Amino acid sequence: MTEKTIEVDYLARVEGEGAMYVKMEEDKVVDLHFKIFEPPRFFEAFLRGRSYRDAPDITSRICGICPVAYQTSAVNAIEDAFGMTVSEPIRELRKLIYCGEWIESHALHVYMLHAPDFLGYESAIHMAPDFPEIVEQGLRLKKIGNDLLALIGGREIHPINPRTGGFFRAPTRAELDALVDDLQWAREAAVATTAWVARFDFADFEQNYEFVALSHPDEYAVVDGRIISNRGLDIAVQEWGDVFEERHVEWSNALHAVVKERGAFMTGPNARYSLGFEKLYPIAQRTARAAGLGPTCSNPFKSIIIRAVEMVQACEEALRIIDRYVAPESPFVDATPQAGEGHGASEAPRGICYHRYEFDADGVILDCQIVPPTSQNQLRIEEDLWNYVPQYAHLADDELQWQLEQAIRNYDPCISCATHFLNLTVERG
Amino acid sequence: MASHTMPTAKPKLGVFKFASCDGCQLSLLDCEDELLAVAGAVDIANFPEASRAVEEGPYDLALVEGSITTPHDAERVIEVRRQSKFLISIGACATAGGIQALRNWKDVDDFTRVVYATPEYISTLDRSTPISVHVEVDFELRGCPISKTQLLELVAAFLQGRRPNIPTYSVCVECKGRGTPCVMVSHGTPCLGPVTQAGCGAICPAYNRGCYGCFGPMESPNTAALGHWWERQLDVPVPDLVDAFRGFNAYAEAFRTASDDYELRESRD
Question: Are A4 and A24 a contacting pair, CB within 8 Å?
Fold first, then answer.
């Protein structure tokens, strides 16, 4: 009997430190781990004893790629605990800054982290000599997302402007108008990106997922909403703990989130799209249809097409918000702390980011729980690998390794986020 | 440097990560207008977040992100230093231990129990420490996150064999430069700007909030004078002063000493 292992000690083109280990006997997988060895940073522990005011700034430091997701989920949870509601213009600004994060993060993943897999390049930089216009288009899209983020947030990474109740400063109409030409270009570029990535070769790999995403009656949900799934879940964010749990496994510094009754689920682009297609703007729906997608998509490799469609959606959303923008009378509503518990969630580019805080009467954090999207997807990534290896077991080790890395990158895993998470080893026996 | 003795070869750049949010190395990818030019000027030999291709060392220039929090990383950083001719630590985690250095005031076993159900699976050190505690560092680039303008200046200075032009004065100088009225004077908002190193461009005061210290202590920070002003003029309670200095650069010496002093006073009061 031949045994072998494939090991990737340090997975590339993901955010953070992860590894993969696959042990095979003949062509059968006998052991498989998607490992997260990113060192733990203990956010939930050192937030205890800090003021609610610190939560958006501190939790944004969990992730340099999606800080707005952490800030938004944190303020949602704080406002829930204190019984606050924000005005519609403030909520619109939250959607607008989040559009910047989606465009910046999706452009990074589509062009720099994922496309090189489909085209057989080690990186976007290696791709640039053969595809100069494509790489430049991707960089410009990313920059426009970052420009939107920086205008509203003050800077691209770890924005300083979001706060409990709103923002420290609301942008002026003239500042936003200055972004319109770029965003119109970006919307066209995102449509072109979708057509480009749709021509890639995709593995025939449809999986039976439980998709979990936020849902809003009138919107492709991003900044808030109820949590729904294609297996009948429809709960308020406050009921998170009743339905989901986090499990600690030996090979990962990131906790595995599961649906208590059923196990692994998928959050992120495929889930949002498959549960929310009807809510996409017409231009995004048309772009998806033209790319050959139906109203649902169960092939994780096609997440790259969905990210491109979501860039179209985010550009359209940003343009609509800017078009009707009226600066809020006050950029924030005052917070009056009260003792109690609050829950918040939003759709980070990689999926649902959930926060729960418990406060004393002065707004001091007594306890908190943060569940990043990658820790929710972690178990599902392993299940994809279990199902994927048998189809490709005939490949040489280095080709199999690349295929499996790509299967992991489908999820745009953010390991820095998940740690409270990646390294590939395939052992063949 | 090899780049100087071998003018035909491009210098080899390595980007290394320890405990961090990835934001500082992302700053390099966020140089959208300059990225391809940088890739033309240096050989990006090791940058796992951007590329599968990994060239063996030695590296001419190493950018090191993150703090040291595990026994394994404490060994790994020594190997990175051994492989690197010029080593620059980038960002508050690498230069001061980062926000995760808040563990340095607590019992890390308690922290592990708060976050993880099975603490014995977790290998971690009781302190989060900057790179300079473990190996010699040739330059420290501050910020949470770093400024991409300063990063480009640093890479350009390295390529040209000159000292980088990175100011060590306070955020106040940047506020004056952009014409932002002082937030402490004009609306009584507590601000760490006077004791914090410039580099961000004084963003927070321009957005009607006080500086919260992302770039760490400036060259000669008078934390006592600032604390006195906060207490007497702005009625900031002592525990809030402790927390203000215990931010993203909590373990940088001047901020650490200041927060410890205020904590001691809090315990006496």
Answer: yes
The domain locations on chain B are: 2-160, 171-268
DSSP reduced 3-state for B154: helix
The whole-angstrom separation of Cα B35 and Cα B40 is 9
The span from the CA of A63 to the CA of B20, in Å, is 8
- The Cα of A275 is separated from the nearest Cα of chain B by a number of Å equal to 30
- Under 8 Å CB-to-CB from A6, ≥6 apart: which residues? A20, A21, A22, A24, A397, A400, A401, A404, A424, A425, A426, A427, A428
Count of pairs with CB atoms under 8 A, one residue in A, one in B = 181
φ and ψ of B187, to 5 deg: -135, 25
In CATH, the architecture of A3-203+324-428 is Orthogonal Bundle (1.10)
Residue B153, min C-alpha distance to chain A (Å) = 18
Report which of A383, A378, A384, A380 is spatially closest to residue A420, judged by C-alpha positions. Answer: A378
Beta-carbon count within 10 A of B157 CB: 15
ipTM computed for the complex: 0.93
CB contact under 8 A, B115 and A40: yes
Q: What is the pLDDT of residue A414?
A: 77
User: How many other C-beta atoms lie within 10 A of the C-beta of residue A62?
Assistant: 24
A198-207: average pLDDT: 96
| Alpha helical stretches, state H, A43-168 | 43-46, 55-60, 67-81, 88-107, 115-119, 124-127, 132-153
How confident is the model at residue A429, as a pLDDT?
Answer: 46
For residue B76, what are the CA distances in angstroms to A51, A216, A271, A345, B234?
A: 36, 47, 38, 37, 46
For range A216-236, the mean pLDDT: 98
Q: Per CATH, which fold does B2-160 belong to?
A: Rossmann fold (3.40.50)
Q: Where are the domains of chain A?
A: 3-203+324-428
Contact A65 B111 (CB under 8 A): no
pTM attached to this predicted model: 0.94
User: Which residues, given as ranges, of chain B have pLDDT below 70?
Assistant: 1-8, 111, 114-123
> A123 in contact with B at a CB cutoff of 8 Å?
yes
A362: contact with B, CB 8 A cutoff: no
- Chain-centroid distance of CA B220 in Å reads 18
B-chain CB neighbours of A38 within 8 Å are 19
Locate A278 and state its tokens. Answer: 């009807």
Nearest residue of B to residue A332 by CA position? B208
Query: What 8-state DSSP symbol labels residue B257?
Result: H
Q: Tell me the longest C-alpha to C-alpha distance in chain A.
A: 73
**Could you give the CA distance from residue B176 to residue A303 in angstroms, rounded to a whole number?**
47
Rounded CA separation A38/A14 (Å): 12
DSSP secondary structure, A271-321, as one string: HHHHHHGGGS-HHHHHHHHHTT--S----GGGHHHHHHHHHHHHHHHHHHH
Q: Is the pLDDT of residue A179 over 50?
A: yes
Distance (Å, whole) CA A252 – CA A418: 10
Nearest to A46 by CA among A372, A374, A373, A420: A420
**Is the peptide bond prior to A40 cis by the omega test (within 30 degrees of 0)?**
no
A11 reaches B (C-beta below 8 A): yes
Q: Which two tokens stand for residue A305?
A: 């097409």
